[in-house]
Design goal:
Elements (H helix, E strand, L loop, with lengths): L3 H5 L15 H13 L5 E5 L1 H7 L3 H17 L3 E5 L21 E10 L2 E11 L8 E7 L2 E7 L3 E2 L7 E2 L13
Parallel strand pairs: 1-2
Antiparallel strand pairs: 3-4, 4-5, 5-6, 7-8
Length: 177
């Protein structure tokens, strides 16, 4: 997706932040400025992993994020937090548990099938409304995001040790694009 036009007319503000050079208070201030001065409606923090690595203690990050998210929630701002898990393949661990601060939590996992690296998506938590409880394959390509049918013929995708019990044709087709 081309973002240049959105950035040029002010509908998108992208800021690269070095967490080693920015105090927690400065981050909060920048976010507040984006909401109050630029009238931001969506805030994406990508990623909390880098921010966590720059903080002296995990507890400081949790308190800081609680403060920021409370403010954004009161302002009606959609907030998306990205957090990388340790261990992309196999067992994974979360560097800090922030799920209690979130209304919805999506888990993205890698899995292997037929000699290809594939991706699965699942809703782990949803505070309001119906909850999707299936694990589905998803793919990001030049033509956008595709989400497949539930991966009913797999066991163990979320454990990191999946076992395929179905037929190859059930997965999203690979397109050359």
């Amino acid at each position: 997706m081309e973002f240049t036009a959105f950035a040029a007319d002010g509908r998108l503000i992208l800021e690269q932040v070095d967490p080693a050079e920015l105090s927690p208070g400065e981050l909060s201030s920048r976010i507040r400025d984006a909401v109050e001065k630029a009238e931001a409606k969506i805030v994406v923090i990508d990623s909390l992993t880098g921010y966590l690595n720059a903080m002296s203690e995990e507890q400081h990050l949790v308190l800081q994020m609680h403060e920021i998210l409370t403010y954004l929630n009161q302002k009606g701002i959609v907030t998306i937090l990205l957090l990388a898990n340790h261990g992309l393949i196999g067992q994974m661990a979360v560097p800090v548990d922030m799920t209690y601060l979130c209304d919805s939590v999506l888990l993205l996992r890698f899995f292997e099938n037929g000699g290809r690296l594939r991706r699965a998506i699942s809703v782990i938590k949803k505070r309001v409304g119906a909850h999707e409880d299936t694990i589905r394959e998803f793919k990001i390509s030049a033509s956008g995001v595709s989400v497949g049918e539930p991966l009913e013929e797999f066991r163990g995708i979320l454990t990191g040790a999946p076992f395929f019990e179905g037929k190859q044709s059930d997965l999203l087709k690979t397109r050359s694009s």
